[in-house]
Amino acid sequence: MKGIIFCAAILTIVVSCQNDDDYQEINQSLIDDTLSELLLEASEGEGNSFFILPDSNDYGLIPQDPLNPITSAKVALGQLLLHDTAMGGDPKIEDREFQYACATCHPVASAFHAGRRQGIGEGGIGFGFKGEGRFIDPLMPIDSVDVQPIRVPTLLNLAYQDVALWDGRFGGTGTNAGTEAGWDLIPENFEGFQGIEVQAMQGQDEHRLLVNEAFVDAYGYRELFDAAFPDIPSPDRYSRRTAGLAIAAFNRTLLSNKAPWQEYLKGDLNALTNQQKRGAVVFFDQGKCIQCHTGPALKDKAFHAFGFGDFNGDPDAVIKPGVDINAVARGRGNFTGNTEDDYKFKTPTLYNLTDAGFFGHGSTFTSIRDVVVYKNEGIPQNTTVPSEQLADEFGGLGLTETQINDLTAFLSDALRDRDLTRYIPETTNSGLCFPANDDQARIDLGCD
């Protein structure tokens, strides 16, 4: 009887999707029952709890690196360091000091993505509202600009991965077992740190950030480091390493746990509209989204090829001299050297896509709906990707226009945590403007 009810519910929704673009009001309890069945199936019997994100201060439930246990002292320090433009103390051009921070390319207003297609650290000017108004200073030598040849990923829900970057090269455990041949320039991998910790340490070198004892004393951070790392000897306590561990601890608490979908999972059946619920049914059923986007963060730990385009075909993209964009386009394969990994990229979280603005590792989409249509049609942007590399979930879905609209509503609104400003500090220890501190950015951000 249970199976009959479930099938009837699916049939009702599918028929409505195909024959009535305006939708007659579908019995809400029928949709809820259908979703409940789909959640049980997708979680192998665990149900809603499998998909629930913990509270950001419930450290015992947040996945963490055993080498870097989360503490409130680390989180407090990491929050400040992530945003403090005083961290920008190692620029290539001397007069660019203290103009940028981690948050310059990971601002809260863009859900911790860059606010533009390519994030710009040193060498950028301005900020706009959410980073969309940051541009390369024409006076800056292009080979000195800190701009990456791939989309800046979000910091949201990072706790649900053990490797970092689109190709997953950061991280010395779990997913990266057997990839040691590619770790020559990543010593933290050999120490067994997970990807978030490695990224927070290596990122300081890559993005010209500087933390040392002079920084700590100049900006009053000594007590915070002492509280966060009391067991580390004083000579080693004020460093790039401890700063990275604090930033990583904070990053693990950046969870989209106030999104309507989370409230729905916790029992508030009115947290979603009927359209969003129908979109969730598509997500967990015919859309095949759940096959890659699973767990609390709606992402697995695997790598998939969906044929998204890269920066190499866009005249507006900035590719610095010496960057092999074709190697970047190989994704995971460029790191592992395994041709079976070519063109595969790490699964991103689907939360707060509305705030992201750009989608795909090459930022080749600016509309969530267009991405849904792209996946439904299965025609790759990057025509050099061999068909045998493409994910089974790419194309052949047969979604109707109404189903596409419903799925878009679920992705756009049900998964959007609208209260991310809770992660912004009121100020930083330096008191400098953040998340950017050049002359134009200070004007844009109202710091002057």
TrEMBL record:
The keyword Oxidoreductase applies. InterPro entries: Cyt_c-like_dom (IPR009056), Cyt_c-like_dom_sf (IPR036909), Cytochrome_c_Peroxidase/MauG (IPR051395), Di-haem_cyt_c_peroxidsae (IPR004852). Gene3D superfamilies: Cytochrome c-like domain (1.10.760.10). It comes from the Bacteria. Pfam families: CCP_MauG. GO terms for molecular function: peroxidase activity. Residues 274-415 form the Cytochrome c domain. It is found in: Cell envelope. Coiled coil: none annotated. The keyword Nucleus does not apply. Keywords: Heme, Iron, Metal-binding, Oxidoreductase, Peroxidase, Signal. This is Cytochrome-c peroxidase. It comes from Dokdonia ponticola.
